[in-house]
Specification:
Elements lengths: L4 E7 L3 H13 L4 E7 L1 H10 L2 H5 L4 H11 L3 E5 L12 H23 L5 E4 L4 H7 L5 H15 L7 H22 L3 E6 L2 E7 L6 E2 L2 E2 L5 E2 L8 E3 L1 E11 L4 E3 L2 E3 L3 E5 L2 E6 L4 H8 L8 E6 L5 H4 L7 H4 L5 E5 L14 H7 L7 E5 L6 E5 L5 E6 L2 E2 L4
Parallel strand pairs: 1-2, 1-3, 3-4
Antiparallel strand pairs: 5-6, 5-19, 6-11, 7-10, 8-9, 10-16, 11-14, 12-13, 14-15, 16-17, 17-18, 19-20, 20-21
Bound molecules: zinc ion (2 copies).
One zinc ion binds next to strand 16.
């Protein structure tokens, strides 16, 4: 929006791209643009050389300044693309402690963003280390160029009129959202290899996707690319077992083969072929970390999935497969969320936590049924594709 303040979070090596984004933000009428740089390598320093006190501590001065600005409508843009295995040699226990400290002081910021106070967006930015993860056999420069091509294709930036192409995409996703909202399902059932999971949906849940309507009056696409339609699970009504279908890049490590059992909404057992420590620590973050805050449907034929690539980056991988998220729910996936007292939100099924971690459970071998108010099963996806023509 014009005359709006904008804050950009970016990785230091991406400064040339950031300069172009800042130029464009002013051309579009920004009142101010601030850039907060982080640096993958300095993020390692605390774990390598910091004291025990340093691991458990996160300063709050930056968040105390940012949170009110976001609540007052400052826009937020995050450029992604970190090294997926930045912390692979670091003790996951230390990373979990540090992440928790950061999440505690960052809660006012995530409340502003996830709570829909302002327009925000996460977009990819290709870094050499990320590109080498996706294309390990290519030389670095070639890997970077190829990954940028994929980014342009999946975000539709390579189309003759990218904005028109994006709007057309928005309309298509909305048709699926509207259809799901019209069914009023009480639960979704996922069935596939290693998976038989019934995800009860929150009372008054709403299916959302592609666009959010922020309280500052802006309409935004919080993730680009995005293919998902998503809603709020009921925090106490998730039953069964589920197996991940793609690796997950989390806290600087790569997790794979995650298997989880749920009872009455909570995780009762978890194991993983790779990164088991990381996920076990994750669900110990707080009470809400072992319950679901999001369930999302993505067709297997999505452009991100069609690349056939593993991105080791949730922004992409979650848009290649249906997924669930442990932790905090999104306010806009429950009808009248802000008018409902906090206790009642939780009774209706809204989950709260310091974390929100998506992981992929869909594939071309997974079927999804919607369970209607009358307990009848309605086909929603078959072999990873919509059971209807969009
Ligand atoms: Zn999602
Ligand atoms: Zn999510």
């Amino acid at each position: 929006m014009s005359d709006q303040d904008l804050v950009i979070g970016a990785n230091l090596p991406d400064y040339e791209f950031v300069r172009m984004v800042v130029d464009e933000a002013y051309r579009q009428g920004a009142r101010s643009v601030s850039v907060l740089y982080t640096d993958d390598q300095t993020a390692r320093s605390k774990f390598l050389y910091g004291s025990e006190t340093a691991i458990d501590y996160a300063p709050s001065w930056l968040q105390e300044g940012l949170a009110p600005a976001l609540q007052n409508g400052m826009a937020y843009l995050r450029l992604g693309g970190s090294d997926p295995s930045l912390l692979k040699d670091i003790d996951p226990g230390k990373v979990a402690r540090s992440s928790k400290a950061a999440a505690v002081v960052g809660k006012p910021i995530s409340e502003a963003i996830v709570g829909g106070a302002t327009n925000w967006c996460i977009v990819p930015c290709v870094s050499p280390r990320w590109a080498k993860h996706v294309y390990p056999d290519l030389a670095e420069a070639e890997a970077v160029e190829k990954l940028w091509d994929v980014v342009f294709a999946t975000t539709r930036a390579d189309q003759p009129d990218p904005v028109a192409a994006w709007k057309q995409h928005v309309e298509q996703v909305k048709r699926n959202m509207d259809r799901l909202n019209s069914y009023g399902f009480q639960a979704l059932r996922f069935q596939g290899p290693g998976t038989d999971l019934t995800v009860g949906l929150a009372d008054g849940h709403v299916w959302c996707g592609v666009e959010s309507f922020a309280r500052n009056g802006a309409v935004c696409s919080p993730n680009i690319p995005t293919e998902e339609v998503f809603t709020m699970p009921h925090r106490n009504r998730v039953e069964g077992h589920v197996r991940s279908t793609k690796p997950l890049s989390l806290r600087g490590q790569v997790l794979d083969g995650i298997q989880v059992t749920f009872k009455d909404g909570a995780v009762t057992s978890v194991c993983a072929e790779q990164g088991e420590d990381v996920i076990k620590k994750l669900i110990e973050t707080d009470e809400g970390a072992r319950r679901l805050g999001e369930v999302a449907l993505v067709p297997h034929s999505s452009p991100v999935s069609q690349t056939g690539l593993l991105f080791f980056d949730t922004l992409f991988d979650e848009n290649a497969a249906s997924h669930i998220a442990l932790g905090r729910a999104y306010a806009d996936t429950m009808c009248d969320y802000f008018e409902i007292p906090v206790d009642e939100r939780s009774q209706r099924g809204a989950n709260d936590s310091l974390i929100h971690v998506d992981w992929m459970i869909g594939s071309d071998e997974v079927d999804v049924d919607g369970i209607g108010p009358d307990n009848q099963a309605v086909p929603v996806m078959r072999k990873g594709e919509w059971a209807w023509s969009a």
